[in-house]
Design goal:
By secondary structure, the chain is of the alpha/beta class. It contains 23 helices and 13 strands. The strands form 3 sheets. A 6-stranded mixed sheet has the order 1-2-13-12-10-11, with helices on both faces. Helix 8 (about 155-165) packs parallel to helix 13 and helix 13 (about 275-285) packs across helix 14 (about 285-305). The radius of gyration is 25 Å and the shape is globular. 6-O-phosphono-beta-D-fructofuranose (F6P) binds near residues 155, 207, 210, 353 and 508.
Length: about 550
Amino acid sequence: MSDLINSAAWKALQSHYKEISNVHMRDLFAADSERFSKFSVNDCGCLLDYSKNRITEDTMVKLFELASSVDIAGEAKRMFAGERINATEDRSVLHTALRMPKGSTLEVDGEDLVAQVHEVSDHAATFVDKVRNKVWTGYTGKPIDTIVNIGIGGSDLGPLMVCEALKPWQQKDLTFHFVSNVDGSHIAQVIENVNMQSTLFIIASKTFTTLETLANASSAREAFLNSGAATKDIAKHFVAVSTNSEAVAEFGIDVDNMFRFWDWVGGRYSLWSSIGLSIRLSIGNENFDALLDGAHQMDRHFVETEYEKNMPVILALLGVWYGNFFNARSHAIEPYDQYLHRFPAYLQQLDMESNGKHVRADGTAVDYATGPVIWGEPGTNGQHAFFQLIHQGTDLIPADFIAPVKSQNQIGEHHNMLLANFLAQTEALMKGKTLSEVESELRASGADAKTIASLAPHKVFEGNRPTNTLMFDELTPATLGSLIALYEHKVFAQGKIWGVNSFDQWGVELGKQLAATLLQELQSQKVGEHDSSTAGLLGYCFTRA
Ligand code: F6P
């Protein structure tokens, strides 16, 4: 049995779970009118209300003891200081250094990383100003009006999510496209619709070895050259964001047009680095700085605040509470803000690639559940699709509800309607509706006894379904920065509790290896050594091609 399962803190939670698993939140609220003020935190421009959880003060004391027992605070300090906590890749994990203000210092191995960060971001900022101010032109002298970011995973999801979230801040005369999928239809749709003479391609890849990105970049370059441009014109239309200058040069991009970053920035933590070039181009340098500052405020909150008021730690502990004690296997993310429509997809990579692990950092197998399935869609759309299952399904699905108090688009009563739904859902999930409430409602509507008996069971909501509510005044660059960093640190804290390395991603490698072999077989039309299913499917492709 693992040390975690054997720990006093874990055992205390196990026996506490037995006491509380049948307690209804409706009763907890009825018994304590101070629940909201007891179980909410307001910092970094965000309000976290976690009172609609299956917890008492005693639960939280026990969860905080768990946090202390694995020393989340100490581990965070080690990460922030640049210790090589990503042991399987022998790397530091320092996305937090990317948001440290100019003039501060962080010395790691005798080098001041903050100075390096700002040197690179000044390089990016100068380029961004030139493009946005129409000083940087294409090879025929036309100003750039279209930006195409080619990348995948962390080199796509973060920049895309932020550009979408901050659309109101987007420079109006620039159009943005994000191409990630190796399915040729993705790049084809973009190539068809852009004017090559005024398009800038950003090839974003930390490693510059990723098959999808290199294939899309090659196709973009080919289309560019086929449009009448010469090889020398590539320099005006293709820039790279990478840690691998050799591969960038080999691809044919001038390294003067490369914005670098460092191996201590994980792919899914890289939007704050040069990988955020498309974000800078969209919202401008000042707003990008505000995004960084929002994240930095959350970094400080995470390392400086005691567990009892620490938002990332609280979210992490509640996730463990449900995942490991209530056996909840998924976690829903419900942003009630259309601009945040890619936030759940972004969090999928952040959380699932970080904590979807079956061994601990020391290589021993876990004997408890680790990262849950993360999923979600913006409200209110989700309400008319899958909320049925969250309300009345057989699985317990904890959910985070996220909304701004003010909308970026005050049109009529839309935002009040949005907020009314937002608030109604968490209230309904918490309270539910009892059989006797359903029966009296039916009676009041004039239903007869037979109808009541047959209909009532379908209309019962057991409730007691946990939610966290996150609110902020407005979705601005700064609040978005804080929100993203909040989830980054939540994922870190959970990884520490489970003892996994949240910063490697070996689980993506096997598929890549097999795809390399299968690609050759598809190209040569020869079936190699495979199981009968894979061989049969290959054969099907050959006969139908
Ligand atoms: O295959 C997974 C992964 O390595 C992610 O972790 C990463 O964000 C993505 O691929 C893209 O990698 P790169 O930026 O090196 O192209």
